[in-house]
Amino acid sequence: MTARRVAIVTGGSRGIGASIAEALAKDGFDIAISYARNAAAADETVARITALGRTARAYRAGEGDGAARDMIEQVVRDFGRLDTLVCNAGIYPYARVQDMTVEQVDATLGLNVRAVMLETMAAVKHMKRGGRIILIGSVFGERAPFPGISLYSATKAALGGFVRGAARDLGPEGITINVIQPGPIDTDMNPANGEGADMLRGFLCVPEYGKPADIASMAAFLARPESDNITGAALNVDGGLAA
Ligand code: NDP
């Protein structure tokens, strides 16, 4: 019998994270998701996963300094093990550098970078060979094609540096770490019919928004044993925005 496997998906209540959580559940993982405020959406994701015959549970993100790390420890206590961590939760501030606030800088670094590092640090302590860390960055980590995204781009670029360095640390333990860099994906954060959507389509080779499932397929692939040899990589699923 295949051993039970457990995955954590941060920001799994809606959008890309919810789609990743479901894809991993279809591949046989039991799932812990975190969310910020939207308990109803988190409950819906949990119900969809439970309907697939897997165990699922939602965790509201805490506020304190070590909250991201504490959430990982709580999940390991509840589920008994951890095989895959998907750091998906993120925010997308829009402000020119002339207008950015200290609060925006702290909040964006806090969730998009600091929490990712704390979660990874906690998760690898519990992972065995075959463990997987999958970060959700952005193609804006390597391209900034319009004004107002310097802060967001900086945080997503940081993930590329983090996975390259951490892959060196974790490789000998048989744990891989990669960042998926989506282009425009139709979610509440970036609706395909939103203001600016036509401009974004203009940057693409395939001139249509991607779907959350496009990112979920890549995440599911990275979580499988056949991706054992992929680590330290930034993988674009971006409609060709970076081309
Ligand atoms: P959404 O805004 O649609 O969803 C965000 C999710 O993150 C929600 O589940 C939300 O919970 C959760 N969340 C927010 N803050 C926290 C927190 N502090 N702790 C835990 N969970 C939190 O975003 P997307 O699905 O569009 O984006 C997901 C990731 O993909 C982000 O990292 C984003 O930067 C990245 N990305 C998205 C692109 C896009 O075009 N959509 C393009 C490139 C990258 P709640 O429901 O409670 O609010």
From TrEMBL:
Pfam family, one: adh_short_C2
Keywords: Oxidoreductase
Domain Ketoreductase: 5-188
Keyword set includes Acyltransferase: no
Keyword 4Fe-4S recorded: no
Matches recorded under InterPro entries: KR_dom, NAD(P)-bd_dom_sf, Sc_DH/Rdtase_CS, SDR_fam
SMART domains, per database record: PKS_KR (SM00822)
Superkingdom, natural source: Bacteria
Family stated for the protein in its record: Belongs to the short-chain dehydrogenases/reductases (SDR) family.
Protein name as it appears in the record: SDR family oxidoreductase
Organism: Gluconacetobacter entanii
Source taxonomy: Bacteria, Pseudomonadati, Pseudomonadota, Alphaproteobacteria, Acetobacterales
